[in-house]
Amino acid sequence: MAKTYDVVVIGGGPAGYVAAIRCAQLGLETACVEKWINFKGDPALGGTCLNVGCIPSKTLLESSEQYHHIKDGIANHGIHVEGVRLDLDQMMARKEDIVLQLTNGISALFKANGVEWLQGHGKLLANRQVEITGHDGVVDVVSADNVIIATGSRPIDIGAAPVDNAEGLIVDSTGALDFRQVPATLGVIGAGVIGLELGSVWSRLGSKVIVLEAVEDFLSLVDQQIARDALRQFRKQGMDIHMGARVIATRKTANGVEVHFKDKDGDHEIMVEKLLVSVGRRPNTDDVAAPESGLLFGERGYIHVDEHCATNLPGVYAVGDVVRGPMLAHKGSEEGVMVAEIIAGQPGHLNYDTIPWVIYTSPEIAWVGKTEQALKAEGIPYKIGSFPFSANGRAKAMDHANGMVKLLAHAETDTLLGCHIIGPFASELVQEAVLAMEFNASSEDLARTIHGHPTLYEAMHEAALSVHGRALHKINT
Hints:
By secondary structure, the chain is of the alpha/beta class. The protein has 3 domains: 4-155 and 282-350, 3-Layer(bba) Sandwich (FAD/NAD(P)-binding domain); 170-279, 3-Layer(bba) Sandwich (FAD/NAD(P)-binding domain); 355-466, FAD/NAD-linked reductase, C-terminal dimerisation domain (Enolase-like, domain 1, 2-Layer Sandwich), CATH 3.30.390.30. It is built from 13 helices and 22 strands. The chain has helices at residues 14-25, 47-52, 54-73, 88-113, 173-176, 193-204, 224-236, 329-343, 372-378, 393-398, 426-438, 443-447, 457-466, and strands at residues 4-10, 30-34, 116-119, 121-124, 129-133, 139-149, 153-155, 170-171, 185-189, 208-213, 240-243, 246-253, 256-263, 266-272, 274-277, 281-283, 316-318, 357-359, 364-369, 382-388, 404-410, 416-423. Strands 1, 2, 3, 4, 5, 6 and 17 form a 7-stranded mixed beta sheet that branches. A hairpin with a 5-residue loop joins β5 and β6. α3 (54-73) runs antiparallel to α4 and α3 runs parallel beside α6. The longest helix is centred in the N-terminal third of the chain and has 26 residues, at 88-113. Keywords: Cytoplasm, Disulfide bond, FAD, Flavoprotein, NAD, Nucleotide-binding, Oxidoreductase, Redox-active center. Residues 355-464 form the Pyridine nucleotide-disulphide oxidoreductase dimerisation domain. Its EC number is 1.8.1.4. Its main location: cytoplasm.
């Protein structure tokens, strides 16, 4: 007879492992199914995010920023360093060590909270049964009162540039995080978050980076004033970004990859040593449920869920990248918490209007809430407050004075509707706006909050003052 749990979670990434831990905290007998094998050949928790996504990419972004700063930026501080040398092997070893520390940490959290890790591939069967195919091919079946599907996402493939990470010429994000030499030239198909972040890593380490983006609008989800500033800064840094450039074919040669693309000026051809394909991600749901389970899918492979992440099947939920909404680790984690609490009989809540977004380039880009273009399209009256980092003392001292903070507030109620930042530590600064919006704060609330001096947070304060023409450290217009 199949073993029965209160909850079985399929997937051990940020959505799945957090859901499992929260379920266990609430007194539910919980198991988590995860099949990931890491770079050492060992089973690992953490999914894409911790193993080949968020964590290794941010580690390399930090390392490459340190290298670039010492090599090209620190002389302005009166510090002169000779003989700077890149040790890429050590940089990669550090990345791998951090990944192991964090993924092993999840395993320890499972043990501490009493979550059972079932290693292998999980598939939903009828009547809330879950089939687990182990790494040795042995198949087992368990039952659950509740099942949470959290199998994440994977890169989208394009026929014009077939990925082969093992060969290492045309790669996806996983391959681009594991180059063992700095490519002289790196082509990037897609100017989204992943393409820009990984392009930034290798650009700072010495690659000539050429980005080809099929659409005309740069970072269309970002407030367009911020996006225009970002494009200008990235190009100034040396990234060769082509908008409206559709890749039509690639050919591997002895010298690298020949890339053919088309734009408004006609057909073009470039040669790059390596090519990164980063045109988005798709839900990882191809083998997540047997047909007899009756699980309902929506468009493009997403699992159909309601506002509380419940599927069409009683007791079956889905969270994270496999459901609607942004593919963000923190969004998936909070959905996992919400579902765990609902299963345990608690209310469970997630405010989708206050999910922060971050692009970890340099400068960083972060935002929450509505963009100016969205407010215009929806006919919502608004006021703008902004403040440049060029007028912020801490940013000047850090030599990171590019960019700005932009706040959007309702023209009649003054409620904060959006916050958009490009500049130093934008990923941290935006959290103040997230908290403020969660409590339905107004721009006046931020304006009357004391901010320490000198700090980057003063730019948030000044932007809030600017909404009503009261900024103190810039000329109000």
